[in-house]
Amino acid sequence: MNSLKAKIIQLKKDKNAVILAHYYQVPEIQEIADYVGDSLGLSQEAEKTNADIILFAGVHFMAETAKILNPNKKVILPDLNAGCSLADSCPPDIFKKFVEAHPDHIVITYINCSAEIKALSTIVCTSSNAVKIVESVPKNIPIIFAPDKNLGNYIIQKTGRKMVLWDGSCIVHEAFSIDKLLELYKKNPDAEIIAHPESEAPILKTANYIGSTAGMIDYVKESKSYKFIVATEAGILYKMQQLVPEKTLIPAPSYQDNTCACSECAFMKLNTLQKVYDCLLNESPEISVPIEIQAKALLPIHRMLELSK
Question: pLDDT of 64-74, one tens digit each?
Answer without folding.
Answer: 999 999 999 99
